[in-house]
Design brief:
This protein is of the alpha+beta class. It is built from 16 helices and 12 strands. α6 crosses α9, α10 packs parallel to α15 and α12 runs antiparallel to α13.
Length: about 525
């Protein structure tokens, strides 16, 4: 203690206080809070006013607005809403002003008080009448306005939400030259509208869900009722309703809670920010989840092959799309296996290398002090650091950091004879291959698998790589996404489905929906969809 005081006084010229703040237990652990689930709205306006003030901690919560209203014949009412989440001009003109001009009404002479108020004196299209206080609190927290009237044992909840949000922009993570350019935002209703603009069908269901005991994050489960398999919809609903946690902020957290295998390298969902991709998945018989505050949708189920498909494949002509898929497939294999193949060849199988190339590799590695495995891991780790730093930095600085950092680091490492030039080429091709992956989560999967295959190759060469591929194939074969095998569909050369393993089918030959989805309607177009080709 004397040394601490001396340091504080010598460096900062301050004398430590005798008694500082120490955070301790609050003493409230284990205290069971009283449930408010069954609290009903009273006909007494004062009782309701007191209850609402206590639940919202008013006036400590300074963004909570409780406005009292004097009606005719000394009738009283009040509205409650959260400042910044509602359209205050609408509340003033269509709710408060309408109630203040309402004439005296003897409720006993008419149907009931709530009918009179709701049908005659509130100018709003979306009006719900609730009887429980918990329902009022939930709606107000989500941006609605609640109205309490003296003598009426019910509350009137009006959807007057109006908060700042991003406008509809282009997709940043799934760019495509062809097709729609709109992307999801953070507003739930705006996102559902983007999907309904594409699918104009009354069978498109947007089933509301609420996740999180405290956050009460709202979302919608999208499916087409006469196409999607009811068992798939029930399973998705069961898993979402089975999430019991206090706070859910993003849709990625929901995916982590409903996935079957947490520790597998490959993701079992398809994340997308494009409404057209969600619409296409729904018409195939899939289910999608949208969450308020998340600019992405969660599509389920999926398989390993669809994770490698890009959005632009559906809008390109068949030769172009197939060429793009071949390039992406080669890039995926290189990002996963190229470092392992290089190690296997240089350590165990030098005989497969042409003689002059072997001389070149040996001469380049002659002055390198590290073994090939350590050299490879050192450069791969450096590349991963540059990648992560580029993502975390602001836009222009991040791209500059990636280019300049890679060039300077690679050139300096070669000049200092820490690594060989051929190793720089291997790492660069591997990195480019990982960037060519259409799904970001799949690129993470292949980056992890790359390290595993490096270990196998460094131990037994090609034999180790073959064992690793065999184990990985067995692992994929054992995985399922919402009851669908992860290696579906089975390979068919002349498949009539839009979901194929490697190649794109012409749009006029996609007569069947994916068989592994077991949709209610098996066909999506007639046997001859280009009817102008029929002979007259």
């Amino acid at each position: 203690m004397l040394f601490e005081k001396f340091i504080n006084y010598a460096l900062f010229r301050t004398v430590p206080s005798k008694k500082g703040f120490v955070l301790t237990e609050s003493g409230e652990d284990g205290i069971k809070k009283q449930s408010t689930e069954n609290d009903m709205i009273s006909a007494d306006i004062d009782t309701n006013f007191k209850y609402v003030k206590e639940r919202f901690n008013y006036p400590v919560n300074n963004d909570i607005v409780i406005r009292k209203i004097e009606l005719k014949q000394e009738k009283r009412a009040f509205v409650v809403f959260i400042d910044g989440m509602v359209d205050t001009e609408f509340v003033n003109d269509n709710i408060i002003q309408s109630l203040q001009t309402m004439p005296y009404v003897t409720f006993s002479k008419l149907k009931s008080g709530e009918d009179v108020i709701g049908e005659k004196f509130i100018s709003h299209s979306q009006l719900n009448v609730v009887t429980k206080m918990d329902d009022v609190m939930t709606e107000v927290n989500f941006g609605s306005c609640a109205l309490f009237v003296d003598g009426v044992a019910k509350a009137f909840v009006m959807d007057v939400r109006s908060w700042d949000h991003r406008s509809i922009e282009k997709s940043e993570n799934e760019k495509s030259i062809y097709g729609p350019q709109e992307a999801f935002g953070e507003m739930l209703r705006a996102n559902t509208v983007l999907v309904r603009k594409i699918i104009k069908d009354e069978h498109l269901i947007a089933e509301g869900v609420t996740i999180g005991e405290k956050s009460k994050t709202r979302g919608v489960l999208l499916y087409i009722s006469d196409i999607a398999n009811p068992k798939l919809v029930d399973e998705a609903r069961k898993r979402i309703d089975g999430i019991k946690m206090d706070y859910v902020i993003s849709i990625e957290e929901v995916a982590l809670m409903i996935e079957e295998n947490t520790f597998t390298a490959t993701n079992h969902f398809l994340h997308t920010e494009r409404p057209d991709r969600v619409a296409r998945a729904l018409t195939q018989g899939r289910v999608a989840l949208l969450l308020n505050g998340s600019p992405q949708a969660l599509i389920m189920p999926t398989n390993i092959f669809e994770l490698t498909h890009a959005v632009s494949d559906d809008y390109l002509r068949v030769p172009y799309a197939n060429m793009a898929r071949l390039v992406r497939g080669a890039a995926l294999m290189l990002s996963m296996l190229l470092p392992a193949l290089y190690l296997a060849i240089t350590l165990f199988h030098q005989e497969v290398i042409p003689t002059y190339l072997l001389y070149s590799i040996s001469a380049a590695r002659e002055s390198v002090p590290f073994p090939s495995v350590l050299e490879l891991l050192l450069m791969d780790f450096s590349f991963e650091m540059i990648r992560e730093a580029g993502i975390r930095m602001p836009g222009q600085i991040g791209s500059t950091l990636g280019i300049v950092g890679g060039l300077i680091l690679g050139q300096a490492a070669v000049s200092a004879k820490i690594v060989s030039p051929i190793m720089i080429i291997v790492i660069a091709i591997t990195g480019i291959g990982s960037f060519a992956t259409s799904d970001y989560s799949l690129s993470w999967s292949f980056r992890i698998l790359k390290l595993i295959f490096i270990v196998f190759a460094a131990s037994t060469g090609f034999y180790g790589i073959a064992i690793g591929l065999f184990i990985y194939a067995l692992s994929l074969g054992a995985q399922k996404s919402f009851g669908v095998p992860f290696l579906s569909p089975p390979f068919r050369v002349r498949s009539k489905s839009s979901s194929t393993l490697l190649f794109v089918n012409p749009i006029w030959r996609r007569e069947k929906r994916p068989g592994f989805l077991h949709a209610q309607q098996k066909t999506s177009e007639p046997n001859i969809s280009r009817q102008w080709t029929e002979e007259q």
